Structure formats: C-alpha cells, structure tokens
C-alpha cells in the first residue's frame, strides 16, 4: 500500500463494516491505524485480505502525535545529567530505535522491539530510577490525556515546590541569624543545628535521594557531589552555611528547570493553535460543533473569518486569505480558492470557507511537525555527545582532586584538618558539572524550535550543527528554483495543416496524461477533441494514441529524434526555444511533425535572492535537473547559478552528489523528496521542499522547508552557525567560570556561598544564553484572529 489508489480500495472494503470509528493511513510508512470495536477489528482484517492486501500488526503501532513507542514517567528525572545517566544505561541494548526525553513532564518515550522493553526497564531500574508506565501513553488519545495529567500534576508540584523552598530559605536564614547573634552556648548551637537540619531536609530531600542512589551505584553525579558537600559541611560545624547552600541550590535548580522547560516546550505552543472543535456538516444538512478528534476524513467543515482552521483539508467552497505563518513561517497571507489546501492551526483572515477534511486530527501537518520536532529533541548532537563524554571523566577527576586537597593540604600548606576538609567540600560544590552538561541540550532544542517557528523543520541536532559545514548545495529545478507550474507560452503549426484540427488532436492526447507539461498544454490550448483511443504512455518520452483514425505521438525532442522526424529547420527552432529555458513538446504522425508546443516554468520570486544568500555564506550552488541541458542553463542563468547540469535521471543525480562531495566537501541537496530521494539520502544534509509537509518529503530529508522558500536553506546555514557559536560560548562560560573559582578554592579565598553561586550562576547563565536562539522567531498571528466559536453556529440551528 503506497499510493492513494490502494488507500481507496481499502477504504471501500471497510465501508460496509460497523464499529470502525476512524482510519489513519500513512502511505509513506505503509501503515494503517484502525480505531475500532474489538468485534470489528477481525472483520476489518478479513475484509482487507479479501481486497488483496496482507495486513501485519506493528508491535508498537501508534500512528498519532505521539508516534511509536511506550511512555514511562520517571519522577526523579528532571535534569540533563539524569537523562545522560539513563542514556548510558540503555546504550548497550540492541533493539532500541529511539529515546524521547521530556524532562519537563519527567517522561521517557522508548521506541524499541517488543522483546527489548523488559531489558530496558531493568537497565533503568539498575541505574537507580523507577520507570512507571503512563496509562494509555502508547501514542493513542489516552496517551495525550496522560501527558495532560502529568502537566497538571507538574503544575501543582511546581507550586508545592516553591512553598517548600521558601520555607527552607526561612529556616536557613534563621540558622544564619542564630549563628551570628546567639550566645556561644550548647543549647543555642543545638537549636541552630536543628533549624539547619530542617532547612536541609526541606530543600534537599530529593537531592539526597538521588545522591545516595548514585553513590550506592558507584556513580558521581551532581546530586552525589552536593549531598557529600552539604553533609560534610554540616558535620564539621558549618551547619548554617550548609543549610543556606542547600536552600539556594534547590531554588536555583527549580529556576533552571523552568528555564529549560521553556526551551523544550517552545514548540508545544503549536498544539494550542488548532481549535478543539470544528463546525461539521451533518447528514441532515445542519452544522454541528464536533470535537476535532472525532471528525472523519471526507467530512465538510466550515470556518468563518477570524477563526483558526481545525484540520487539514481541501477547499470546496468560498474564497479567503489564510495566514499560514504558524505552519510555514510565511508572513503574508495566502489566497485560497476551491481546490487549494488548508492546514490545521492556520488562521482564516477573510471570507467564509468550506473544506473537505483530508487528515485526521492526529495526522495533520501540524501534528507531524510537532512529532518530528519531539523526535529531533531526542537525538544527540555531536557537541552534546562530546560534553557527555567529557563530563563522565571530569566529575570523577574533580572528586579525586577534592580528596587530594583534603588529605594533602594539611602537609603542604599547613592547614588544619577541618580547614582542608572545608576547602575540599567547597571544591566539590564548585566543580558540579550541571552547567556544563546543561549547556548543550538547551541550546540545541532552542535552535530546533527557532527553526520550526520559521517553517524550517530540522530532524535532529546533528543536522542543526552540521549545516554550517556545507560547502555546496545541489538544487533541483522544478518546484525548488521554479514554481513547478509550467505554462504554455507559445505554440505553432509546423508546416501545412489545419490549426483548429491540430489543436484538437494535441488536446486529445494531452488530456489523457497526468504529466505537468501535458496539463499546461491542455490549459493553454483551451480546446477539446475526441477521446484518444489505444492510449499509451511512453516513459521519459511522451504519449501516443489514435485520434480520428490516425496514430499520433505527443512527446519530447528525444522521441521525435528517435522516430527520424527531426530536420535541420526543426532542430534550429527547437534550439531557440531551449536556449530560452522552454520545454518543447511536439505533435507528430507517422510521417511528419504537425506542431510544437513551448512550455516554460517560471522562477520563484525568492530564488534569485536565495542564491545570493548562499554565495554570501560561501556555499556553491549547482542545479541538477532531468530537463534538457539548454533549459537547465537558461534557468540557471536567470537565477544566478553558475553550474547547471541537465538530462539527469535519479541515478545520475546520485552520482553528481558524490562528485560534488569529492570536489567541494560537505554537500546539501534540495528536492521534492520523491524523484530526488536517492540524492537526498546521499547528500550530507537533504533539504526537502515540503509543500507544507508531504509524508514523502518528511521521510526522505533531514530538513523540511515547509513553504518551499529556497531562502530558508541559507537561513538554516545561518541558524546552524549561530547555534554552534552559542554552544561553544556556553561550554567556554561553564568551564571558564569553574576554572576561576577552582583556583580561588585551592588558594583559600572561595567560600561555600561563593561555590553555590559559581555553580548555579553558571548554569543559569548558559541556559539564558541558549534561549537567545528563540528571540525573533516567535510567530504570534493570534492577535489578529479570534478563536473559533462553532457552538454559537450550532445553537443557531
């Protein structure tokens, strides 16, 4: 099942069955999701088999917003250090396809083979965590509900956490006050210690749980270091400082977690773009407000000016202008008329529209964007992998240095044992790797979200980082540099002949073909002829058929040349058209050419500037097209492209990419994700002109340009350069600040107060720096639009 014809066959086979609630087809993945009663499902499978297909269950099938896999809630996983620990625990296992971490919701989504799940859960438990399955979170609507419940709990948890930490800060302040002003008597000291202990318990109970679990496993993470440092400070009599450090640390951790959530959830605002209800045409002709989750494919939906589009669909009635910025990043509203596509989450600014639903709510373009970004967030960028490896060495090394300071400084520097131990504890707090570990994921996720808001769907941190390395970009012509909508610009009778009769003959053959050039000829001629008989497609050449008893061919230069019908005069005429970038189609009978039709594809308005932008970045542009070389060179000259190669089949494009990689280095490829799939796969980074997100484009490429604007390729390179710069700024900041305070700790000028500010201050600094990537990318068209209010319309009926 890989085309709409087969989808239609299966739909017809299932139509008579009762109990089927919805069907979700994914032709790119060749999967079908059936939401049906238990009794209806076996009948549905039997009906599909009778239709000639062989449905096989997918072990983790979940073709919705959540994608494939199972979701587990891990209550003690709330920072990237713990994410790294879980990743390391799962790395040795085979059968895991992907991991999706949502630290804000404290959930982990595992997409794996069925036999791998028990091994994965066991590995996570051995790492000191307790994964609990989220009820219904298998990609179904129940999973979404589960996620919402988690968010609700998290909101209560955040409010409760604030009050608990405020209380801890009050107790810590009380301990400090007693330390400064109370008499030097045992009773006051015991009272101060008790107050400090309460503060440490309120602020640090979660830290201690994680720290002790890490130490029992022989792991040294930030929680283990902080637990050892605070406990040690308390035991050597620095209990007021220990209490204040733990309170400040916990507060900073909470602030940091919320800041990280902002980056990780930057794309989640898209979920709120599509309204929860749609105004659907009922069987009796009335309009009813219906939850979007229950609207079937083929239903008719109405939207008024100011309302958001609830689902993907094709306009059937009305004209209007749609603001597509939330999905494609386009700043100018796009006019819509019958036959045009509309996308969930966009805004109808003018005119009432009716459209036929073409995708379920779980499979809209908007839903697929969110799914792709969530999957991209779960991948590890090269710098992230480097930092994780570095931190795994750095933390034990610092712990060893702290032990050495505690043991050796009394001999080398004449310190007392308590002074040496205090210095070592300060060193531990300063050296916590939190700022370093968190410096990369927040930056990468911010970059991914910034791209998505601009209509650039980057499918992983690796591509976000590597785009800056591109030295050349291969460009498909049709639909990338040009509009992909050819028009008949000139036609002429060749030799003697009846102009009207020749028009009708050409229209008869062209009308039977789905080729864009044939369609342009039909639309340009505006003539009708008798239906062609014995019609036959000639792949790569044209079509043939019998019209009014005469065998005719309508094809390209190659076909006419192969039939021996090209003369010097015709060759000269064809050369003139081809130099102008026109595609020429010829009508001929068995003995001579009757007419020629020149079709041209117009260059996109943005293509010229896109090439200028790429050149400014030092990226060479090369056009690769299946059109003839003369046409390719003409279009390239208009667009400002220096190198153009024509007459390329898909295999030849693949070879061209390999040659460019040897010649220039890292090479990108832009195409439509179908004919160019081999070249897209071979390129270092494949850019698909997504046409607002076709299935094939999303699967074939590493980056999807949602509005087909070639300028977004250069914008991706610029975003990659910015992201790379911020990544290394953060790494430098984290290590630089720690280095300064480590030296201060060793020479004796740093206190534990300074240590906690150095650690958490650096963490907040790198988070804030990473969030800068989100600036200037927020799309907020909602100010102009009013939320959909279908209930009023339903009530009026």
TrEMBL record:
<dbReference type="InterPro" id="IPR027256">
    <property type="entry name" value="P-typ_ATPase_IB"/>
</dbReference>
<keyword id="KW-0812">Transmembrane</keyword>
<dbReference type="GO" id="GO:0015086">
    <property type="term" value="F:cadmium ion transmembrane transporter activity"/>
</dbReference>
<dbReference type="InterPro" id="IPR023298">
    <property type="entry name" value="ATPase_P-typ_TM_dom_sf"/>
</dbReference>
<dbReference type="InterPro" id="IPR018303">
    <property type="entry name" value="ATPase_P-typ_P_site"/>
</dbReference>
<dbReference type="InterPro" id="IPR051014">
    <property type="entry name" value="Cation_Transport_ATPase_IB"/>
</dbReference>
<dbReference type="InterPro" id="IPR006121">
    <property type="entry name" value="HMA_dom"/>
</dbReference>
<keyword id="KW-0547">Nucleotide-binding</keyword>
<feature type="transmembrane region" description="Helical">
    <location>
        <begin position="165"/>
        <end position="182"/>
    </location>
</feature>
<keyword id="KW-1278">Translocase</keyword>
<dbReference type="GO" id="GO:0016463">
    <property type="term" value="F:P-type zinc transporter activity"/>
</dbReference>
<feature type="transmembrane region" description="Helical">
    <location>
        <begin position="393"/>
        <end position="418"/>
    </location>
</feature>
<dbReference type="GO" id="GO:0016887">
    <property type="term" value="F:ATP hydrolysis activity"/>
</dbReference>
<keyword id="KW-0479">Metal-binding</keyword>
<dbReference type="InterPro" id="IPR008250">
    <property type="entry name" value="ATPase_P-typ_transduc_dom_A_sf"/>
</dbReference>
<feature type="domain" description="HMA">
    <location>
        <begin position="1"/>
        <end position="56"/>
    </location>
</feature>
<feature type="transmembrane region" description="Helical">
    <location>
        <begin position="753"/>
        <end position="774"/>
    </location>
</feature>
<dbReference type="GO" id="GO:0005886">
    <property type="term" value="C:plasma membrane"/>
</dbReference>
<dbReference type="GO" id="GO:0060003">
    <property type="term" value="P:copper ion export"/>
</dbReference>
<dbReference type="GO" id="GO:0046872">
    <property type="term" value="F:metal ion binding"/>
</dbReference>
<dbReference type="InterPro" id="IPR059000">
    <property type="entry name" value="ATPase_P-type_domA"/>
</dbReference>
<feature type="transmembrane region" description="Helical">
    <location>
        <begin position="424"/>
        <end position="450"/>
    </location>
</feature>
<keyword id="KW-1133">Transmembrane helix</keyword>
<dbReference type="GO" id="GO:0005524">
    <property type="term" value="F:ATP binding"/>
</dbReference>
<protein>
    <recommendedName>
        <fullName>P-type Zn(2+) transporter</fullName>
        <ecNumber>7.2.2.12</ecNumber>
    </recommendedName>
</protein>
<feature type="transmembrane region" description="Helical">
    <location>
        <begin position="188"/>
        <end position="208"/>
    </location>
</feature>
<dbReference type="InterPro" id="IPR023214">
    <property type="entry name" value="HAD_sf"/>
</dbReference>
<feature type="transmembrane region" description="Helical">
    <location>
        <begin position="726"/>
        <end position="747"/>
    </location>
</feature>
<comment type="similarity">
    <text>Belongs to the cation transport ATPase (P-type) (TC 3.A.3) family. Type IB subfamily.</text>
</comment>
<dbReference type="InterPro" id="IPR001757">
    <property type="entry name" value="P_typ_ATPase"/>
</dbReference>
<dbReference type="InterPro" id="IPR036412">
    <property type="entry name" value="HAD-like_sf"/>
</dbReference>
<keyword id="KW-0067">ATP-binding</keyword>
<keyword id="KW-1003">Cell membrane</keyword>
<dbReference type="Pfam" id="PF00702">
    <property type="entry name" value="Hydrolase"/>
</dbReference>
<dbReference type="InterPro" id="IPR023299">
    <property type="entry name" value="ATPase_P-typ_cyto_dom_N"/>
</dbReference>
<dbReference type="InterPro" id="IPR036163">
    <property type="entry name" value="HMA_dom_sf"/>
</dbReference>
<dbReference type="Pfam" id="PF00122">
    <property type="entry name" value="E1-E2_ATPase"/>
</dbReference>
<dbReference type="Pfam" id="PF00403">
    <property type="entry name" value="HMA"/>
</dbReference>
<keyword id="KW-0472">Membrane</keyword>
<dbReference type="InterPro" id="IPR044492">
    <property type="entry name" value="P_typ_ATPase_HD_dom"/>
</dbReference>
């Amino acid at each position: 099942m890989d085309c709409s014809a087969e989808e239609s066959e299966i739909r017809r086979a299932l139509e008579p069955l009762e109990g089927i609630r919805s069907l979700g087809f994914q032709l790119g993945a060749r999967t079908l999701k059936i939401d049906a009663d238990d009794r209806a499902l076996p009948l549905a499978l039997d009906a599909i088999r009778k239709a000639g297909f062989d449905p096989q269950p997918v072990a983790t099938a979940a073709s919705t917003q959540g994608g494939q896999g199972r979701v587990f809630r891990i209550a003690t996983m709330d920072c990237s250090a713990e994410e790294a620990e879980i990743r390391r625990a799962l790395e040795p296992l085979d059968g895991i396809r992907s991991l999706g971490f949502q630290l804000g919701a404290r959930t982990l989504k595992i997409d794996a083979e069925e036999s791998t799940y028990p091994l994965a859960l066991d590995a996570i438990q051995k790492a000191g965590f307790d994964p609990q399955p989220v009820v219904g979170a298998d990609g179904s609507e129940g999973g979404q509900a589960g996620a919402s419940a988690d968010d609700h709990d998290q909101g209560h948890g955040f409010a409760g956490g604030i009050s608990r930490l405020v209380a801890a800060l009050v107790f810590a302040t009380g301990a400090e006050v007693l330390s400064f002003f109370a008499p030097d008597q045992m009773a006051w000291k015991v009272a101060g210690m008790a107050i400090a202990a309460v503060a440490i318990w309120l602020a640090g109970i979660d830290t201690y749980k994680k720290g002790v679990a890490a130490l029992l496993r022989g792991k040294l993470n930030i929680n283990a270091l902080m637990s050892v440092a605070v406990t040690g400070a308390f035991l050597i009599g620095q209990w007021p400082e220990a209490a204040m450090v733990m309170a400040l640390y916990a507060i900073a951790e909470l602030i940091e977690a919320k800041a990280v959530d902002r980056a990780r959830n930057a794309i989640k605002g898209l979920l709120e773009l599509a309204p929860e209800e749609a105004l659907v045409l009922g069987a009796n002709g009335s309009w009813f407000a219906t939850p979007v989750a229950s609207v079937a494919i083929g239903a008719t939906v109405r939207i008024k000016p100011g309302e958001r589009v609830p689902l993907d669909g094709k306009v059937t009635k009305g004209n209007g202008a749609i603001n597509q910025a939330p999905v494609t990043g386009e700043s100018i509203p796009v006019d819509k008329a019958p036959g045009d596509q509309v996308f969930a989450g966009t805004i109808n600014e003018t005119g009432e529209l009716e459209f036929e639903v073409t995708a379920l709510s779980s499979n809209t373009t908007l839903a697929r964007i969110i799914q792709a970004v969530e999957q991209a967030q779960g991948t590890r960028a090269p710098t992230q992998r480097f930092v994780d490896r570095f931190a795994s060495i750095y933390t034990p090394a610092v712990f060893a240095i702290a032990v050495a300071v505690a043991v050796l400084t009394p001999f080398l520097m004449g310190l007392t044992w308590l002074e040496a131990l205090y210095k070592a504890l300060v060193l531990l707090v300063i050296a916590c790797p939190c700022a370093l570990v968190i410096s990369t994921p927040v930056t990468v996720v911010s970059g991914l979200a910034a791209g998505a808001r601009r209509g650039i769907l980057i499918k992983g941190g690796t591509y976000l980082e590597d785009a800056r390395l591109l030295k050349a970009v291969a460009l498909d012509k049709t639909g990338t540099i040009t509009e992909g909508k050819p028009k008949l610009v000139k036609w002429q009778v060749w030799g003697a002949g009846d102009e009207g009769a020749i028009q009708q003959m050409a229209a008869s053959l062209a009308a039977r073909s789905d080729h864009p050039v044939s369609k342009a000829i039909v639309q340009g001629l505006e003539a009708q002829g008798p239906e062609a008989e014995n019609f036959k497609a000639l792949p790569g050449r044209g079509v043939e058929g019998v019209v009014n008893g005469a065998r005719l061919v309508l094809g390209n230069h190659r076909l006419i040349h192969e039939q021996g019908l090209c003369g010097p005069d015709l060759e000269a005429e064809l050369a003139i058209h081809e130099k102008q970038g026109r595609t020429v189609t010829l009508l001929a009978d068995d003995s001579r050419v009757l007419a020629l039709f020149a079709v041209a594809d117009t260059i996109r308005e943005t293509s010229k500037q896109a090439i200028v932008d790429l050149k400014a970045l030092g990226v060479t542009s090369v056009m690769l097209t299946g059109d003839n070389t003369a046409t390719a060179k003409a279009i390239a000259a208009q667009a400002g492209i220096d190198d153009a190669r024509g007459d390329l089949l898909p295999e030849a494009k693949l070879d061209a990419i390999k040659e460019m990689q040897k010649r220039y280095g890292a090479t990108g490829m832009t195409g439509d994700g179908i004919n160019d799939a081999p070249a897209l796969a071979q390129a270092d980074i494949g850019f698909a002109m997504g046409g607002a997100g076709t299935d094939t484009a999303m699967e074939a490429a590493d980056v999807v340009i949602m509005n087909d604007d070639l300028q977004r390729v250069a914008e991706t390179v610029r975003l990659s350069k910015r992201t790379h710069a911020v990544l290394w700024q953060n790494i430098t900041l984290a290590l630089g600040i720690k280095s300064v305070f480590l030296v201060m700790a060793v020479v004796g000028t740093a206190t534990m107060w300074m240590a906690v500010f150095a650690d958490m201050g650096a963490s907040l600094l790198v988070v804030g720096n990473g969030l800068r990537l989100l600036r200037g990318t927020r799309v907020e068209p909602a100010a102009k639009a009013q939320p959909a209010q279908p209930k009023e319309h339903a009530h009026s009926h």
